């Protein structure tokens, strides 16, 4: 038996931090070390994550380099813009997995436009399902975990773009549960407001995940892809259902075969049988994306629908998957592939 | 004081029938007559619609021409294909408002393709907000109420198509509550399945409301419009949020002005202030559509989002609005414009 | 036609204020005057209450006596402890209806224990369904609207206590939607926390509505009643379902007749047919309480279940009902008795 | 490495069957054998349990003794009354774990009254947390898994009854998600009906779990216990929150110590820190019960609140826990103790 990996989680009182801990508690190679927080430092984890009963009495400590040093792996689940300073001071032998946006974008101008401030840099992008990415993650010690929307939409559209089935003008409408917005105390996230209601926000290309999708899809297509993205807020805690479509390319054929070939090798991407369509509940708590694809002959469009749990495959599960790859563990270690349903 | 209108509702134990009765109970010119049902005939209405307390003891009678005769207005809320036989035998002076699909489509071939069987015919289309429709409804004695999805999407896109702001290839992704599927005993409509989950169905142009949208939008545009339509099922009882987009036409401008002009004269269509986006809860139980519109400059698309209550403006409220117009009552009589929120 | 009543609402950006305005917009004798707020003063109502479209452009003003003066009726929907100062400076001819707790309790010691600070006083208690209350409300110019839990539980248990059917040790477990907690920015009220979860709070007699229930029930029983009250928070926006039970008194009989007699004269209390049990959806948006009662012979207890909408009959609807009584309007004016369901 | 246990699940297309398979897929000592069904036999499991992706292509076979024979363990998740015939024909060396009610009650008269028909018999009762039960389960080859309500309420009240803290007249109001009713196609279980609504049913001692609670609690107390039980149906798929109270016994003291002592040795029962109250989401998908207890001094009652996932600890997780005990595996093998939240 090898020594367990000692793992710290920065931002342990938030939703991404909680999901990381839920998964790490079931990971056989891991020992949970420091749990850090901002304003919640000094309080027990149980006050913020009552579902994590085995860790209820652990005290949250301040998010500092000192607390995070001395671990084999550090997961950062911090607000955007807070990762760079910490990461710079952690040793290059420590695996740092950032669940924030700081190191996702390659283009400093895009960072500047969408997030403002100085661009921290670019780390290997933690979406192993995209062509070439898995190799770059092996042995990496710095990894940028994708956003929740880019994860499912990039996986949904990559096969079609790589195979030239569609022209590069995609339309994405993705319905998300509220946990994607984090534990933010905003009126529009109150239960009274979200239950019984669907709404939209950041319409018309205003969502910060748009440049990330554009970056991913353009890389796969080998040419610029325009993305019209509309996020919907729906009354559930977890889950994203992304409806992705684009005009069929001339002579496009073999759609299902393209997707079957893509999914055959991916342990966490499941192509549903023909006639079945994804539901987010089937992926709840699992590190999976469920896909289905069809052709709308009348409208001349390919339509791909993907479902994921935004906190699992869309954040924390993807992060643990990347840790497994980086540290040469079997990629599926400790990661559920079965949703909690109904 | 004039004599009250005597109104019958066929299909009173279903969701559309229940919503008709809720509105008719608040309509000052109406007296509620026969309430008919299929398998539920002989039972009290209260057993099926416990919210309609004032009518709890009324007994449902069989849906027959004899029961429906002798009323000034007959609302039909029956399964598709059941309206024609009854309507044919009701007098031409009786106002028959059909909430089913039987008389919505003008093209018999479209009917044949999407619904099968013989086409019953075409009645004046009960969406007064589309150009020219209101005049055709005045004095009409047969009216076909639109489907719930076509109501909100046609209203959302009509101004842009009429003004030439977009090219005629529209993409619609619309999230609906479960009541749109009626009181059908299907496993996928069970509470355990729908709560905490978003799913999709009838993807790729397979939904029967597609030809109705195509018909409406092509009429407004004056040329064929292709519609890529994907419906989502979301965990709430009522409400539709439709995200509609299309490529901007060359030289398109004055988007907001076009929508302001359209909404100015419509008592039930409300353009939200800039920066606000529709939420279905704001329209719950109200006969209204809330709209917002923007331009996605990067993607070169116009995006319009519309919200409605599928049972109110999308079905029963639209039906009562049409009755008001047909019978020369003030169009807004008895129809709430304020949602029940939060 | 008489002059409309000029009505002001203090606290118009909150949930109780919003519900007051929803109902007042449908009240035929009312003209809506000043809308006041605390921190939201200076912003348009539409930013906080997007469902109140007809009032979207009205600007919220500061909650001051100057703004509220000059109206026939002033509804106060303010945090506890803020009503007294304003009420003291409004003329005695103005009808002031307080939706807060300040004037509900008769016993200064109870006020001190449960709310702290000085007791403002006691106003006529706005629950007309309790014996003797309706008469006290006629012509009143100061009215204290009951809390949401006390409304439904007092109505549910009053008939049994008045008729001596039960011994005075009642157990109440009441499940409430989240709007009962107001628009408070607390983590446990976030949609992500409440959806898919039932929790409890203020267990063991710690909820501030306990002394109010005790006061009401003891008055009806004519002797001290002990109340064991446990509130549940359930994943919906609106509604309370209260399960109330107590040991049967010796020789208790005629249970159903007692409840039938009570409900016969009450326009807003509906006894369901035998075999049917209340559901909150049947009362959504309506000023009604739905009741059912039974005897558990094995356990020797009477069980009464009551449903209401906490914002309508439980707050704003009850307030408007009191206004109607105080000003000698028909008690049911402008108040819906039909829920919005499903 | 020992040989895996070969396990069959009868009733694999239902909710209990699905949850058994979700847990068994994560159990390291188990190999999944026959999956049987009634009307769904012949179809793939994936059509009914899309979340169980690794088993999607497995075909359901008829529920017959022949299909179930040849396994080490057979879980029965069948409608009440269907287990006896099958169990009688499976070898005495096969571990049969019945998730139905057939073998739970000791008293044939109670069976007759509550379920009707002939009493099949009584098996060791699969609630190891009750005094003496764990020993009876070791080595057992027939086990009756408790009902979902009796599981949490028995665990919540057993410590107080065993320690003589309360008098034996308990009141239980328990709010349950809809999956407790199974995948039944009934109108009141449709999503449209349950979302946004709390209702009640089987009030006044009419629920079949009442005699099971009475049996358990009377055994613990050593004298007859009367149980007043009211179940609530709340808008979520999974979870039960049980509010249990009873009059304090004279001289009762040391309440918290009693519960601490009880929970200290139970791997799946978690006493929350003082001031925290259970939420069902904290137990979602986990084989745990979360408890909190307090004294209501004014009302003179002890109040205990317990939360569980009705499908996990309340059914399938409890069944797997019993299998572990019966077969001398570590009791916690393969059973999550961490909920999926938020």
Automatic annotation (TrEMBL), chains A, B, C, D:
UniProtKB keywords: Amino-acid biosynthesis, Arginine biosynthesis, Cytoplasm, NADP, Oxidoreductase
Record's keyword annotation contains Cytoplasm: yes
Main localization (coarse): cytoplasm
Domain of life from the UniProt record: Bacteria
Pathway, per record: Amino-acid biosynthesis; L-arginine biosynthesis; N(2)-acetyl-L-ornithine from L-glutamate: step 3/4
Annotated catalytic residues: 148
Domain Semialdehyde dehydrogenase NAD-binding positions: 6-140
Enzyme Commission number(s) from the entry: 1.2.1.38
Pfam families assigned to the protein according to its UniProt record, in alphabetical order: Semialdhyde_dh (PF01118), Semialdhyde_dhC_1 (PF22698)
InterPro entries xrefs: AGPR, AGPR_AS, AGPR_dimerisation_dom, AGPR_type-1, NAD(P)-bd_dom_sf, Semialdehyde_DH_NAD-bd
Reaction catalyzed: N-acetyl-L-glutamate 5-semialdehyde + phosphate + NADP(+) = N-acetyl-L-glutamyl 5-phosphate + NADPH + H(+)
Keyword hit for NADP: yes
Location(s) in or outside the cell: Cytoplasm
Membership in a protein family: Belongs to the NAGSA dehydrogenase family. Type 1 subfamily.
Function: Catalyzes the NADPH-dependent reduction of N-acetyl-5-glutamyl phosphate to yield N-acetyl-L-glutamate 5-semialdehyde.
Protein name, as recorded: N-acetyl-gamma-glutamyl-phosphate reductase
Organism, scientific name: Allokutzneria multivorans
